[in-house]
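Sequence design from tokenized structure. All designs in this work follow the same two-part layout: the structure record, then the generated sequence. An example of the structure record is given first.
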């Protein structure tokens, strides 16, 4: 059973930056596409970004494109989400997820096989 552990969340002022990390317990995920999702209070979970297993392709939600960057370091079984120019509407619990299917990219959370426990990101105005 693959375990994913997110870290790097916190409180930041609008316009600031945070870098989230997602560490996997097994090297198996190095062959998986990885995604980041988020869920704000009272809202449904939404897709944020995804990256292909080898890192040569990525996809972003329109709301974060140009501000967020997803990357991965397969040598460390870790995926990152660099978040710049943060806005109050980015406030949410952020989850990473692993998807064993061929690259879609898949924006539906139901396509993903493994999930982390989430990390809180709060952006104050």
């Amino acid at each position: 059973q693959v375990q994913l552990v997110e870290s790097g969340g916190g409180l930041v002022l609008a316009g600031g930056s945070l870098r989230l990390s997602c560490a996997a317990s097994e090297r198996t995920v190095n062959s998986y596409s990885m995604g980041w999702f988020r869920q704000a209070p009272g809202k449904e979970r939404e897709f944020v970004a995804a990256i292909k297993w080898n890192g040569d392709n990525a996809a972003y939600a329109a709301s974060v494109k140009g501000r967020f960057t997803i990357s991965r370091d397969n040598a460390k079984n870790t995926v990152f989400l660099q978040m710049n120019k943060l806005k109050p509407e980015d406030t949410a619990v952020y989850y990473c997820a692993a998807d064993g299917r061929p690259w879609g990219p898949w924006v539906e959370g139901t396509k993903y096989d493994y999930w982390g426990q989430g990390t809180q990101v709060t952006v104050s105005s």
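The radius of gyration is 13 Å. We note this feature because it recurs in several other targets discussed in the main text.
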